[in-house]
Specification:
It is a multi-pass membrane protein. This protein has 444 residues and is mostly helical. The protein has helices spanning 34-65, 68-95, 98-121, 127-156, 161-189, 192-211, 230-240, 242-257, 261-272, 276-298, 306-323, 329-356, 363-392, 394-418; strands at residues 422-429, 432-439.
Length: 444
């Protein structure tokens, strides 16, 4: 019997990829494409504004309610739409121009951000306003995020796709370092309103940058025709490929538990170390500093395999659990940098492996599944972590947030080993045992 996706989508053909480790002078080779340079500038503006708003939004809710659970609800409101409607977003991305979709989503983001800024500056903002605008922002993200993932292929083609994905991650993390710092300064000096206004203005600039893209130089993908069963088709395709299925499973677990930093760091800044909004911005910047380092390291990566994903999520979880035991701000901050490095190596490896394992005609739906578990998982994890923190404390929350993904990595490694896809290697190096995971050679 033919596979579920064989009639509509042949197995992914070998791609013309950059192989081997790049020389240092070509670390950012994808930026040699003019359209990708324009996109990267716009993306940096969008991500910086988004990070600024997210930090200000979470802190504003904490000020209005004094509750970590309320911060978790804010996170849930922003990511719940992806959990419920994420796959529909992938269908829209496969059917329509990614550039035009992004222009529409940025315009909607601008309206929502400026609206929240007005409410805050007028002094009439309430927690439910923030919840509602976070939910509306999440609805727009349902289309924006998969479109943002897939357009990279149209901008750079397949050969430099892995490098472009790593640069995109570097931009996100650079913004994640700049945005919280800006938010911290604004929160300390003028309040949350200007932070929201800044994000709205950034979205308008991004629309201008998208209009500057040279469409004639883009590797446009023909839109998928309307047909019944496209959601099921995308799911069957993803489940049939281990290089998509297992990264998605690990991303789902990590999103629910590991990617709850806004809730955790708000509690550490407020309750554990009592450093206020400035400290909250600092902690987020420490994570982003490590993540930027990890993203830059990922541009040097010569190959990505399932074992890369399993090892990196296990290491990330372990480091995050250790961070929960740190007694001082200095040690805690150092651990956050290490967590950022490991986390970004895991996320960029997963993103790259899933994209490069997907046929281009169905990539929008595959990436929408990826984004669904990545963002939708945080909709579950935000309130869950808020409850854990309020009942057991921030330290316990951090240990749980890292320990569960580390356990998931061990379980997936055992499953792959049982299916003869991975095996453990133990070697003695100068009388010291060294354990690693390797791909099993095929039988026969």
């Amino acid at each position: 019997m033919a596979s579920a996706h064989s009639t509509a989508f042949p197995p992914t053909e070998p791609l013309s990829l950059q192989t081997g480790r790049l020389p240092w002078r070509k670390t950012f080779i994808a930026l040699g494409v003019p359209n990708f340079r324009i996109w990267t500038v716009g993306n940096l503006l969008a991500m910086t504004g988004g990070w600024t708003q997210r930090i200000a939004q979470d802190w504003l809710v904490l000020e209005l309610t004094g509750s970590a659970t309320a911060v978790g609800i804010t996170v849930a409101m922003q990511f719940a739409p992806m959990l419920f409607f994420g796959l529909l977003g992938g269908v829209l991305v496969d059917r329509h121009s990614k550039r035009m979709l992004l222009i529409i989503t940025q315009a909607l983001f601008a309206v929502l951000s400026i609206g929240l800024a007005v409410l805050t500056l007028l002094g009439v903002v309430e927690a439910w306003h923030v919840f509602a605008i976070a939910f509306a922002t999440g609805l727009v993200t349902v289309v924006d995020n998969p479109a943002r993932q897939v357009i990279v292929t149209e901008l750079v083609g397949h050969r430099n796709l892995r490098n472009a994905i790593s640069i995109n991650s570097s931009v996100f993390q650079l913004a994640g370092m700049i945005g919280p710092a800006i938010a911290g300064v604004l929160l300390l000096t003028v309040g949350a309103g200007p932070a929201f206004l800044l994000n709205g203005i950034a979205c308008l600039f991004v629309i201008v940058m998208l209009g500057m893209l040279r469409t004639a130089q883009m590797s446009r993908v023909a839109p998928s025709p309307r047909a019944k069963g496209q959601l099921r088709e995308g799911l069957r395709y993803a489940v049939a490929k281990p290089t998509i299925l297992y990264p998605v499973i690990l991303i789902a677990v990590f999103a629910v538990f590991g990617l709850t930093m806004p809730v955790l760091l708000a509690s550490y800044a407020d309750d554990v170390f009592a450093v206020g909004p400035g400290g909250y911005g600092l902690f987020n910047s420490m994570v982003a500093l490590g993540a930027l380092t990890g993203a830059l390291l990922s541009t040097r990566r010569s190959s990505i395999r399932l074992r890369t994903i399993v090892i990196s999520v296990g290491l990330t979880g372990l480091l995050q659990a250790v961070a929960g035991l740190m007694p001082t701000i200095a040690l805690f901050s150092a651990c956050l940098v290490a967590v950022g490095v490991a986390c970004l190596l895991f996320l960029t490896a997963s993103n790259s492996l899933v994209q490069m394992s997907s046929n281009i005609g169905i990539r929008g739906r595959v990436m929408s599944l990826y984004v669904l578990v990545l963002l939708g998982g945080q909709a579950i994890g935000g309130p869950l972590m808020g409850v854990i923190i309020e009942k057991f404390g921030a330290h316990a929350g951090m240990v749980v947030s890292g320990g569960v993904p580390a356990l998931a990595a061990v379980i997936v490694a055992l499953v792959l080993a049982r299916r003869r896809q991975l095996r453990l290697q133990v070697r003695l190096r100068r009388f010291v045992p060294s354990v690693s995971i390797a791909t099993r050679p095929p039988l026969g």
